[in-house]
Design brief:
Two copies of one chain form a homodimer. Chain A has 22 helices and 13 strands. By secondary structure, the first copy, chain A, is α/β, with parallel strands linked by helices. Chain A folds into two domains: 299 residues, Metal-dependent hydrolases (TIM Barrel), CATH 3.20.20; 72 residues, no CATH class. In chain A, the strands form three sheets. Chain A has an eight-stranded parallel sheet. Chain A has a three-stranded antiparallel sheet with strand order 3-2-4. Chain A has a two-stranded antiparallel sheet with strand order 6-7. In chain A, helix 1 runs antiparallel to helix 2, helix 3 crosses helix 21 and helix 11 crosses helix 12. Chain A is globular. Chain A starts with a helix and ends with a helix. The interface between A and B is large, with 73 and 73 residues. Chains A, B: It comes from Phyllotreta striolata. Chains A, B: This is Adenosine deaminase. Chains A, B: Belongs to the metallo-dependent hydrolases superfamily. Adenosine and AMP deaminases family. ADGF subfamily. Chains A, B: Keywords: Hydrolase, Metal-binding, Secreted, Signal. Chains A, B: Its cofactor is Zn(2+).
């Protein structure tokens, strides 16, 4: 409404003014709605902004001249090495990004870390239906569920085994177009990867170390808080003991506490229970009970509920309204995946309606949101944050060139957007910086600089589930980090080479 | 504003109602802004709508099950044969689509027709810099500008010549990704094609026949009016006579009149002068003079001005404000290409500001419009029509999967959209139906049927440059055709096979 009034006011003015004055006025009006546009910058921030804009323009120009060198338009499997040489990426890795609000339990760490866990003792492998299963066993008590072979033996006997193993632990391929002709093939590969790593990760010693490492990688990437979605698979011991959902939440909480003790600047982590959407009415009842149990045991840590998995394939939110209402009554909030689809008018698209009607606090992806103008307006005016995961949407084949991602419009129009990594470990990413980079370079205007990045960081805290006290603490920590970052940037501490120094 | 008030009203209501009633209310509210949603359908139209929706759902389901079979998500060079077997496409070809408001002089006819013109006498060819040039000469007076060889001789002496010739007359390739890795390569091929066909088309007998054929192909596709952009290359005779811009406009007007005499249901055609944007201040002055001359000579036929060519490469509107203001003072309207780009914040993107400030009547492509919220709101509220050319944007590499085309959002949000073919002959299309098909199947919801198609046809007339009397005539003719079409559809005249009949 404000936008329309401003637009009309501006257009009325235009009939009297000088062309170039009017043009500048209209451009300013247009930018006024961008995420971050209302932020005032300090003197130092203004210098940092100019520095970043200068670098951004140079990188854009390289891409403009040769689009094969423009990462945001390329598939991430191809763009990653280019991104890693970018001065803007360097800056973004150092920038205090606040928090990570959308990522999944089994894909939280870098692929390198997880691969290194396969050198642990007592790890067995079994190849079935094209999927490689992994599991730790006590050598005296190996399950007969599959033809389990010691991984160490496979390693020694098969020449290309490491390549093979790595390919099973991630969906990265040399030629993504050939490997995944359509969305169905890539989702199949994605789900197979989950099945491969689950037995490796849910071994208790790995599980604890894995989650600790996940937090460490976030902190290394200057992210100080996370909300993790997990489906709580049973964790196991070598002696066969299984840890149930409540105990697994306990492990998460414990590791978080330990990590915070080790790194006192880290704000923490919270948990969103997110079982697979492939449920029935019966299993959904069981999910309700699990949620109630873990919520009542860990009310501060378990902040809400979601359903996950390939949305297009069915099990829409609308099928489980009574159960979801019951979940809501147990406390916490909804953080639903909704509209992660290009199939306009299908059930996955209509999930957006249910997510909003069920009063979701944030939406996962909401890729199709803008195709629903009234709904989009409601999401915006009610401040329901949209968790945008650019690389995920590209890798899982919703969009190729990220300049066509609908979040570009959301960012320009001031939607409550946060940018998150989804499943970074599965596609060779790590932390938030890769997603922030492609969003910054591909989804914002050439003239958009530090204000956007700062607001994105602030959004990631203010749209989190932290309570008022925690949020104040998080913002305080972020402010310290931010000022340090700006100081460092202004003092040129992040670049050791003249090439960059001379652009300031 | 209305949208926001409705959204708020709806959300207030939601707190009191039954879940499923509220959900339905919200969905209805969301659809209310879609193009065509306010149209009331007659009883027959309602039957036709149900018939179309049934077929649409079937085709969508085929694509959903196997995305390799979903044309709107595939490159047009691959999807064309699939489209041609579609019952929905069959219906769209028969549907009275009103008018064609965005297409260019040298690409107006099907490739087949133009290729057939190469069998005329006295056509010579010359290969230079990878571009094949064509020109007719009197055998006694061949230009020495190039090493011209009689095409007939080349035909006889080179085995793969027909393949070669066809490849030079269009940008269609077996593997478009390999042939055109980036936007730069495809624009190069596109411009080479222009250079190849220009000497063939501007030969007076071909020129007249070509434009007549263009109108015939539109009429065959149930399009009864066109606004053609042309840059008025000199037309030539075999005896060396050159026809200047004013004479060339005269030829267009003459052919249009002749065509209307031959087909009395055809409403007509008008002309938008659209020289290449690669101008200098001096040549732009010359364009001003040409425009003034042709506008004063053919005020009813020449309706306005545009600048064309790869927008990203420069020559933005902002460089020629004084000249453009002078053009405006000569009468007619602006129909600027603007924002045909993915480079957010670059000069091509900012063309959108100038186009609106210069009071353009319609915008060509405006692909980047939604990234400028205030501008977009102004375009919408002022009824500046957006000429959407989906296949062009795909083939010229702005977007791969047309479900990601921003027009999907514009259509949902009730922008003044028309759908047009741009350069159909260059990529193997013909008429408007291919573009309408991919828009209908890829950019609208599963539940969107006849209302959208009807409104799109009406838009193409109401957003044309026809004066009030002409427009009334065009609408009257369209109504006759529309009623015939609906009658035929309801009587099932368009399908000879049971497969389709049984779905009603």
């Amino acid at each position: 409404m404000k936008k329309l009034i401003l637009a009309i006011a501006c257009l009325i003015n235009l009939t009297t003014g000088d062309y170039w004055t009017d043009r500048e006025k209209l451009i300013q009006l247009d930018r006024a709605s961008n995420i971050g546009s209302t932020l005032n910058l300090t003197e130092k921030e203004t210098i940092a902004d100019a520095f970043i804009l200068n670098l951004k323009k140079q990188e854009l120009q390289v891409g403009f001249n040769d689009p094969k060198k423009f990462p945001s338009a390329l598939h991430f499997f191809k763009s990653r090495p280019i991104i890693e040489t970018s001065p803007i990426f360097n800056i973004i890795t150092r920038l205090p990004k606040g928090s990570s609000l959308h990522s999944h339990d089994l894909a939280l760490t870098s692929q390198e870390y997880l691969y290194n866990q396969t050198f642990r003792e007592n790890l067995y492998a079994c190849l079935t239906d094209d999927t490689l299963l992994l599991h730790f066993f006590n050598p005296n008590n190996i399950s007969t569920s599959c033809e389990w072979t010691l991984l160490k033996d496979l390693r020694e006997n098969r020449l290309d085994f490491e390549e093979f193993l790595k390919s099973k632990m991630s969906i990265v391929r040399d030629d993504p177009v050939k490997a995944y002709p359509t969305i169905n093939e890539v989702w199949k590969g994605f789900q197979q990867t989950f099945r491969t790593v689950v037995g490796l990760i849910t071994y208790k010693p790995v599980f604890e170390g894995f989650f600790y490492q996940a937090l460490r990688e976030l902190r290394d990437d200057n992210v100080k808080y996370a909300e993790i979605r997990g489906y709580l698979p049973h964790v196991y011991d070598l002696d066969g003991r299984l840890y149930d959902e409540e105990e697994v939440v306990g492990i998460y909480e414990n590791v978080t506490r330990r990590f915070k003790e080790d790194f006192t600047d880290f704000v923490g982590a919270k948990f969103i229970y997110a079982p697979n959407r492939r449920v029935t009415n019966n299993t959904m009842e069981a999910e309700v009970q699990i949620y109630k149990k873990i919520r009542s045991a860990y009310a501060d840590f378990v902040v809400g509920f979601d359903l996950v998995g390939q949305e297009d394939k069915g099990w829409p939110l609308g099928d489980y309204i009574p159960q979801l209402l019951e979940i809501r009554s147990a406390g916490g909030h909804f953080y639903f995946h909704a509209g992660e689809t290009n199939w306009f008018g299908f059930a996955s698209d209509e999930d957006l309606f249910d997510a909003v009607l069920l009063n979701a606090t944030r939406l996962g992806h909401a890729y199709a949101l803008l195709k629903h103008p009234a709904l989009a307006e409601a999401v915006k005016s009610r401040g329901i944050a949209v968790e945008v995961c650019p690389i995920s949407n590209q890798v899982l084949k919703l969009v190729d060139d990220l300049r066509n991602h609908p979040a570009a419009v959301m960012i320009a129009d001031g939607y409550p957007v946060v940018v998150a990594p989804d499943d970074p470990g599965f596609w060779g990413a790590r932390g938030l910086s890769y997603d922030w980079y492609v969003a910054f370079m591909g989804m914002t205007s050439k003239g958009t600089g530090l204000r956007f990045l700062k607001q994105l960081a602030l959004n990631s805290i203010t749209y989190s589930s932290l309570n008022a006290t925690e949020m104040a603490g998080a913002l305080k920590q972020w402010k310290v980090d931010w000022d340090d970052f700006v100081d460092g940037l202004v003092r040129n501490e992040y670049f050791g080479y003249n090439e960059v120094l001379k652009v300031v």
